[in-house]
């Protein structure tokens, strides 16, 4: 084989790898409410195994983008892909790859975590020993054992958030999209959820939204920053600064009104 065809073959293999390695992709996502652009031409991708922060101030467009990425909101322009699957045209196949924790997601508060998660598993077509195994796994990973049979209405916000995480992870998806997973939690609960995310990151691709810089530093080596509906930074977290103070300054300069 010639050197040229060697190179061509290696490039082809590389681009095939690259194609399957992109697990989350936003392609030019725009969402308008009347004249107001909630997001404009948002494009970025997250590769297999990455844990990426989607950072931005309040109202920047994080939840809107996540809803479009997960197929819960139709963009006016642009496309979303999960594991290479077009979310708009192949929703069911894409949703098999996806675990989504929406901001303030609904829970069946009259049920127990066990009852609700069993019900969701059955609706998704999992049953028997496979469902029991998955329930045991999420109960353990999300530290839900002590509240497993208590009504969700009686649980603290931290435990409710963990039930939401368990819901997202029940079908063992490859991709997790988590909208402000630590919002409203006390410092101990924040620590617990961050530990869980770090543990999950060993086997999953994760995009998590936050407006907390410490969260990014604690959990995410990569950051995509959105402001006024547009991406203003995409790169390694360390490129935002080597200390918290530097990061705050950079964040402010990238997100202050022009
Ligand atoms: N249904 C809607 N109708 C009109 N405007 C909307 C609607 N949904 C969102 N917006 C606006 O779009 C912008 C982006 O909202 P979004 O919820 O995506 O921001 P966010 O970055 O997730 O904010 P936060 O950190 O506060 O949750 C905001 O100005 C919001 O008021």
Automatic annotation (TrEMBL):
Domain ABC transporter: 24-253
A Pfam family hit: ABC_tran
Keywords attached to this entry: ATP-binding, Nucleotide-binding, Transport
Gene3D superfamilies: P-loop containing nucleotide triphosphate hydrolases (3.40.50.300)
Coiled-coil ranges (or none): none
Organism superkingdom: Bacteria
Gene Ontology molecular functions: ATP binding; ATP hydrolysis activity
Presence of keyword Transport: yes
Transport found in the keyword field: yes
Family: Belongs to the ABC transporter superfamily.
Record's protein name: Putative ABC transporter ATP-binding protein YbhF
Lineage: Bacteria, Pseudomonadati, Planctomycetota, Planctomycetia, Planctomycetales
């Amino acid at each position: 084989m010639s050197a040229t065809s060697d190179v061509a073959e290696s490039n082809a293999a590389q681009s095939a790898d690259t194609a399957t390695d992109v697990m989350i992709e936003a392609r030019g996502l725009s969402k308008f409410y009347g004249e107001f652009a909630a997001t404009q031409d948002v494009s970025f991708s997250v590769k297999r195994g990455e844990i990426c922060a989607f950072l931005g101030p309040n109202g920047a467009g994080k939840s809107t983008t996540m809803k479009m990425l997960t197929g819960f909101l139709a963009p006016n322009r642009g496309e979303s892909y999960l594991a290479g699957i077009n979310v708009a045209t192949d929703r069911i196949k894409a949703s098999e790859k996806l675990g989504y924790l929406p901001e303030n997601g609904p829970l069946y508060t009259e049920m127990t975590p066990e009852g609700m998660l069993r019900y969701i598993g059955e609706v998704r077509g999992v049953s028997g020993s496979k469902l029991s195994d998955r329930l045991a796994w999420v109960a353990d990973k999300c530290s839900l054992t002590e509240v497993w049979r208590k009504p969700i209405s009686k649980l603290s916000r931290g435990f409710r958030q963990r039930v939401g995480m368990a819901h997202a992870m029940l079908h063992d998806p490859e991709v997790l999209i988590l909208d402000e997973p630590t919002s409203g939690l006390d410092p101990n609960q924040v620590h617990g959820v961050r530990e869980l995310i770090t543990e999950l990151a060993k086997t999953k691709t994760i995009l998590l939204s936050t407006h907390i810089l410490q969260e990014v530093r604690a959990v995410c080596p990569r950051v995509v920053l959105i402001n006024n509906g547009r991406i203003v930074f995409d790169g390694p977290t360390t490129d935002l600064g080597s200390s918290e103070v530097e990061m705050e300054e950079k964040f402010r300069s990238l997100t202050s009104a022009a």
